[in-house]
Amino acid sequence: MKKPIGVIDSGVGGLTVVHELMRQLPKEPLIYLGDTERCPYGPRTEEEVKQFTWEMVHFLLKKNIKMLVIACNTATAFAINDLHEKLDIPVIGVIKPGARAAIKSTENDYIGIIGTEGTIRSEAYNDALRQIKSEIEVLSLACPAFAPMVEKGLLEGPEARRVVEKSLVPISKHDKMDTLILGCTHYPLLKDTIQEVVGEDIKVISSSEETARETSTTLDIHQIADDDDQSPLHQFYATGDLEIFIDITQRIFKDSQFEVLTIKHADL
Amino acid sequence: MKKPIGVIDSGVGGLTVVHELMRQLPKEPLIYLGDTERCPYGPRTEEEVKQFTWEMVHFLLKKNIKMLVIACNTATAFAINDLHEKLDIPVIGVIKPGARAAIKSTENDYIGIIGTEGTIRSEAYNDALRQIKSEIEVLSLACPAFAPMVEKGLLEGPEARRVVEKSLVPISKHDKMDTLILGCTHYPLLKDTIQEVVGEDIKVISSSEETARETSTTLDIHQIADDDDQSPLHQFYATGDLEIFIDITQRIFKDSQFEVLTIKHADL
């Protein structure tokens, strides 16, 4: 059997990474685990996030994954160094791919970043950006209302628009920022609304799309890409209510065709 | 002393990769070697291209490079597998980064690719694209007039426009292609003209920009990125006429500031 790529997230946000992985790497079988029971991770302590992340990783290691994608910015911010050190499969997070894409995009070195409180507090994006290019000016803003709104399935309409508008006030009128990183995998589900609020001139970078692309590069460097033409079977697990999880999954993948082996509850 | 990234090309086209490397990875010292004496590689045999590429690689290995970027599509098409196998430093070419960016960009899986005769004949882009996504439809076209035109410094104006228009006739009216890969590192110097000819609706992918980004990913995976803040010193070598080389270099880097250690003739 083909070995899958493991994808973990605090909830449903990581499904935007899965969506892009299926589109950009359609030969690769995926196994997704969303910790919907304990979502959001944003307000939790570093220790909690690390512990929960390791619990998810242990669940997936038993499923024989060949690579791990941390499709959650908060978990990436707090746990990736530890995972890199202790796992012997390739591990990628969502922060560096987003940072690299933003550096490629910006023309004036002013980059905005929105994410959960945990991600913003960790300054992981600032570190990733400045490690590559010291000149980058970073405007960062926590948007604690966004992820819970998405988990409830509120993705568009006047209420979503009101929340996005109000949350983005501190950066939406900044006159220099030319690139904005969606530093939470839930946010691509609000991308159209966010783009409208910040205006067409701002290049909005989805860390989900960029992570799918870097997954491709990583598979290639480690020579573990799957290139046979048999359609892959995907597996989905969630720790919380399966009904809401299936509902949101159907909405995210409404225009996609793929084969599912499993959608199940996971006990960590 | 900081170890440099080595960049090789058949001529001056690879300087577009260098330009992007400096922009996206400003802490990294670079050493460039352009085989301007024997350019273009496009019409040469596979054996010749392999031999010339190895001669350039041996020159750079003596300069203690930590990584090799093959900033030439023809050399990538014919020599990268051999280089991967025999070198113990990371090696990246321009083809896979361009292919991955095109897969991320396309919405209907119709991708155009223009390059030298050698690159097109090798079908290296077709292979790279279909290895990742079998559904991709590839329209490929050799544009043998472009690279020599750029080497002569003819980058814009009515004559350049005429050559570009005439060369692109076979694909410029295609009604499905939504993404076009510039599969030769000379072509970003003609990007504005090419974009005008194919129209605004086509996303034009520069393999140079994409290769700079994947260089960043590769440095990261191999943990050999430079992150101290000291300005790097760059080195430039060419096998042919140094006067023309310096003239084109000045035009490509006219808006850039960087420090040069050396611009010298190279004997291979």
TrEMBL record, chains A, B:
UniProt entry tagged with the keyword Glycoprotein: no
Matching InterPro entries: Asp/Glu/hydantoin_racemase, Asp/Glu_race, Asp/Glu_racemase_AS_1, Asp/Glu_racemase_AS_2, Glu_race
Chain sites annotated for binding substrate: 9-10, 41-42, 73-74, 185-186
PROSITE patterns from the UniProt entry: ASP_GLU_RACEMASE_1, ASP_GLU_RACEMASE_2
Pfam families per the UniProt record, alphabetical: Asp_Glu_race
This protein's pathway: Cell wall biogenesis; peptidoglycan biosynthesis
One GO MF term: glutamate racemase activity
Reactions that this protein is recorded to catalyse: L-glutamate = D-glutamate
Active site: 72, 184
Keywords (A to Z) from UniProt: Cell shape, Cell wall biogenesis/degradation, Isomerase, Peptidoglycan synthesis
SUPFAM superfamilies: Aspartate/glutamate racemase
Highest taxon listed in the record's lineage: Bacteria
Enzyme Commission number(s) of this protein: 5.1.1.3
Keyword Cell wall biogenesis/degradation: yes
Function: Provides the (R)-glutamate required for cell wall biosynthesis.
Family: Belongs to the aspartate/glutamate racemases family.
NCBIfam families reported in the protein's UniProt record: glut_race (TIGR00067), PRK00865.1-3 (NF002035)
UniProt cross-references to PANTHER family, sorted A to Z: GLUTAMATE RACEMASE
Official protein name in the record: Glutamate racemase
Organism annotation: Oceanobacillus locisalsi
Gene name for this UniProt entry: racE
